[in-house]
Amino acid sequence: MTRHCPVCRLRYPNDREHCFVDGHPLTEPTAWEPLERTGYRFVRALGSGRLWSTHEFHHVDSGARVAVKVLERDPSSEPGVRGRFLSAGRAAQRLDHPNLTRVIDVGEGPEGEVFWVTEYLDGEPLSALLSSGPVPRRGPLKILLHVARGLEHAHGAGLVHGDIDPRSIFILRSGVTKLCDLGLVPSVRRPDPNFRLPAQLTESDAFGSAYYPGVHLEPRDSMAADSYAFGVLIFELIAGRLPYDAKDALQLNVQRERLPVPTLRSVWADVPEPLEALTAGLMAKSASERPAIADAVLALTAIRAAAGFE
């Protein structure tokens, strides 16, 4: 959330204190009107992305904690970006599932901001868990099944996630796994069938996320792309690494197009055959060959029961 001058309404980065035009102190997020009027008070910033920022608020009367994701007005963004963000939020608001982050409210601010109010998640993203070291092979099946169940519910309602990766998955302290940001990416950027990832990626470009969407295979806003990304997620959690060993995104695209789909057996000789088959099927190069997420839920349930995975 950027700061703005209450007099001339110019907008500034968060590190600026005063307006350079008239010298007035810039308005803090605590004075952001739409939520203030409904009894919410700003607590802290939680993070930010290319077009949105996330903040913790609490409700003065009830004491409830919520997370507020704000899409700020960006004149350089493509036409219709705000409308698609609103549409995605309202669609997600209609969903109710224990493995999906609950969207409580969707609205617009006085300076063109669009916001989602969601439940506050007490825990850590899966990306943080992965960065701390390998996940025990008997541990990921519960996480994966929770993600698949949430995604199955969304697909059943006709809503695609579009950007499944460890940063969009949250592990609560209670042990429940939640899928976040449902429909957020395709609502922000309309997929381009001719899109190719840049040849060079840096750490700040979130290189790992390039592995997840099947952008070279079909548009990101398709259920088949979600299936592909979920297959990559299974591979990473079970194998402890991503499926392709690429130095940059250009090499990654070449490997995905020319090399066989990597197998779990190449890194785990005793992998259960049903898990090997499911992962390979989800990452199939042809979208028509990938199983639906509903089928993945059935397969993962059977794998857990047969192998005694946690």
Total strands: the figure is 10
Under CATH at level 1, the class of the largest domain stands as Mainly Alpha
Strand content: 15-25%
Shape: elongated
Instruction: Kindly give the count of domains.
Output: 2
Helix content: 25-40%
Rg measurement, Å? 21 Å
CATH superfamily of the largest domain: Transferase(Phosphotransferase) domain 1
**Largest sheet composition:** 5 strands, antiparallel
Low-confidence stretches: 185-208
CATH topological fold name of the largest domain: Transferase(Phosphotransferase), domain 1
Q: Any idea what the CATH architecture of the largest domain is?
A: Orthogonal Bundle
- C-alpha termini separation: 40 Å
**Strands side by side in the biggest sheet:** 3-4-5-7-6
H/I helix tally: 9
| SSE string | EEHEEEHEEEHHEEHHHHH
Mean pLDDT level? 78
